[in-house]
């Protein structure tokens, strides 16, 4: 097995790849946050619109309100659940690596980035699940609202 010093180039390539993946992961999380905020706004607006309607079918309107509330709360959960970590903490990097060789420092960075990437994956998955809950319940709320509005005018 090659020594740590012999693997400097390999560690450098791995480190660069992990840095790129972390950047893409952060961008993806930001995009989910943006979409979640939009969904929360649509759900809040839909609740207000439905509240202004008169003579709605009570059961369908109640179910629609419930679906909108779930959509809003799920969107907020997707947005506010957690922020992505980055690696490494600058002060910690100096403290941990100032005395190390380049190869040892790269090995440390690779290990730190892998840990953070894995923690971020869990957060990302939770955000995606909450986002999908919001999308599905918003769609259900819109269908129930349409049904509640349509049922009112028919004898």
Q: Your description of this structure?
A:
This protein has 155 residues and is mainly alpha-helical. It has one domain. The chain is 83% helix and 0% strand. It is built from four helices and no strands. The protein has helices spanning 8-52, 58-80, 90-97, 102-153. Helix 1 packs antiparallel against helix 2, helix 1 packs parallel to helix 4 and helix 2 runs antiparallel to helix 4 (102-153). It is rod-shaped and about 75 Å long. The protein starts with 7 loop residues before the first helix and ends with a helix. The mean pLDDT is 87.
Concise overview:
The protein has 155 residues and is mostly helical.
Number of strands: 0
Query: What level of helicity do the residues show?
Result: over 70%
Stretches with pLDDT under 50, minimum 5 residues: none
Radius of gyration equals 24 Å
Specify the overall morphology: rod-shaped
Helix-strand category: mainly alpha
Mean pLDDT: 87
Count of alpha/pi helices: 4
How far do the termini sit from each other?
83 Å
Overall number of structural domains? 1
Beta content comes to under 5%
SSE string, helices as H and strands as E: HHHH
How does the major sheet shape up? none
């Amino acid at each position: 097995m090659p020594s740590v010093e012999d693997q400097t180039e390999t560690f450098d390539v791995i480190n660069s790849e992990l840095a790129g993946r972390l950047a893409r992961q952060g961008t993806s999380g930001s995009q989910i946050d943006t979409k979640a905020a939009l969904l929360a706004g649509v759900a809040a607006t839909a609740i207000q619109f439905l509240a202004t309607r008169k003579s709605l079918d009570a059961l369908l309107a109640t179910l629609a309100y419930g679906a909108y509330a779930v959509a809003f709360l799920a969107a907020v959960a997707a947005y506010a659940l957690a922020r992505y970590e980055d690696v490494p903490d600058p002060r910690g990097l100096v403290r941990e690596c100032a005395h190390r060789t380049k190869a040892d420092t790269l090995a440390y960075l690779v290990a730190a980035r892998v840990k953070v990437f894995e923690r971020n994956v869990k957060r990302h998955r939770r955000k995606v699940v909450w986002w999908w809950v919001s999308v599905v319940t918003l769609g259900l709320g819109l269908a129930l609202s349409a049904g509640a509005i349509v049922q009112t005018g028919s004898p």
